[in-house]
Structure formats: structure tokens, C-alpha cells
Design a protein that fits this description.
Radius of gyration: 13 Å
Distance between the termini: 28 Å
Number of helices: 0
Structural class: mainly beta
Helix content: under 10%
Number of strands: 9
Strand order of the largest sheet: 2-3-8-5-6
Order of helices and strands: EEEEEEEEE
Largest sheet: 5 strands, antiparallel
């Protein structure tokens, strides 16, 4: 599974996540920023401990290579995104800094 958390605990109530598909190699999740006024940045992590490596993420017909155990998504106010993560289980936790960033939806 994938773990979703906002960078600020006080802002977590403004972001909703729905996992609609879960297989051994892919997860489909819809993220929605419920705040009508504030941009939210969400960290998407592969597994509760980062034990899944995310090869790529697809959204809006585009595919971005991630190659890490997590990435960030920036959501404009009242915006959402449906993401499909291509991932695999890894016995080691990737401690490299987050490098992949999904740009804001227009």
C-alpha cells in the first residue's frame, strides 16, 4: 500500500486520499485538496516504511519516472489528481532525498 501524509499535521484534514486499485505492482490513488483557499503539498510514500520503490507515476496521460520510495504532489486549492503508481517491494529502505516532484495541476 502507499502512505500519504501532508507536510504539516494541521493541514492533513484538508487532503483526502482514496485508493481505488491495489495490486502487487501498482496502486491507483485519487488525491483531493479540500481547502478552497490554500495550496497543499503531499508526500506520497510507497509502503508504511518506504519499503516499496516507486518506478513511475502516471497522471493525466503523462508518466514521470520516480525511482525513489516517495515523491511530492502539489495540489492547487479545490483541485485533485488521480495517480497510478508503478512500484515494487524492496527489502531495503531508500534513504535518498526526495527528487521527483509532480507539478501543480492546471
Amino acid at each position: 500500500y502507499s502512505r500519504f501524509c501532508d507536510s504539516s499535521l494541521s493541514d492533513m484534514r484538508d487532503v483526502a486520499a482514496l485508493i481505488s486499485e491495489l495490486t502487487d505492482t501498482a496502486t491507483t490513488v485519487t488525491l483531493v485538496n479540500l481547502s478552497p483557499a490554500n495550496v497543499r503539498t503531499v508526500v506520497v510514500q510507497g509502503g508504511g516504511y518506504g519499503e516499496h520503490q516507486i518506478d513511475s507515476v502516471e497522471w493525466s496521460g503523462r508518466t514521470v519516472r520516480v525511482g525513489e520510495s516517495s515523491f511530492t504532489v502539489t495540489l492547487k486549492p479545490s483541485a485533485g489528481a488521480k495517480l497510478t503508481l508503478d512500484l515494487w517491494y524492496s527489502a531495503w529502505k531508500n534513504s535518498a532525498p526526495e527528487k521527483a516532484t509532480i507539478p501543480q495541476q492546471k
